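User: Teach me something about this protein's shape.
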Amino acid sequence: MDLEKFFDRVNHDMVMSRVARKVRDERVLKLLRRYLEAGMMEGGGVKPGEEGTPQGGPLSPLLSNILLTDLDRELEKRRHRFCRYADDCNVYVKSKAAGRRVMAAMRSFLEKKLKLRVNEEKSAVARPWGRKFLGSTMSREREPRLKIAATSRQRREEKIRQLMRTARGRSLQKTIAILNPLLRGWVAYFRLVEIKAVLEELDGWIRRKLRTLLWRQWKRPSTRVQRLKQRGLGEHPARLSANNGHGPWWNGGAAHMHRAYPKSWFDRMELLSLLDTQRRLQSLS
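Assistant: First, the predicted structure itself:
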């Protein structure tokens, strides 16, 4: 279940009434009210803040969670199993019919009690493996396992593609230095996943992209022959490989480039391995 334009539609009176349950200092309450009503710059002028919380502000996530604590308590009272992060919430029930009942009840509660609306396009009653939550989903098994959602993988691949488009004039070592932080943060976020095939496949895909980058940088067949020979290929196989007539992407995944630049070589170049890093993080937890 997802809430429609949540940070834009948070009701100020609702938030303040819930903060006032715990905070008695009038100065703090006035400061929070002024923060909510500060407005935002739009078209060179200030648009009054009649509802919603300032997006990007440090207090907005906290105030929003204070408001949605009422939703948590309602789900707990009904003894539902659920997981919520900000305005994104998954509720787990035993049947589709129960799911429809819970969805209708939560829609009514949110609209009447908290003045919020459910985003119908992003919300649904479905099997756990048919939905994603915070970039993850579950496997379709008797004992479900946590895995990375396809959309999360696609977004990461697109970021890597964008980085690679500007990498042709850089050394491989510099490209790896830029790439590693992008990989490190992502795999740390998904350190709890139990199905590791996506990490292994992405590792192989990244190494192929880097081999492709090398092939493009070499440009001439004579340079390719020289580089392959330096990496241990004989004269004849190096010349056959350098003049095979295929494009860079094909060669990036071909046997001669795998032989010349195996995973161990990339490890020595300090390319971060998603799979190895995830295993190490799990061993520390």
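Now, about its shape. Strands lie at 40-42, 45-47, 81-85, 88-92, 136-138, 146-148. The chain is about 55% helix and 10% strand. If you'd like, I can walk through any region in more detail.
User: That's plenty for now, thanks!
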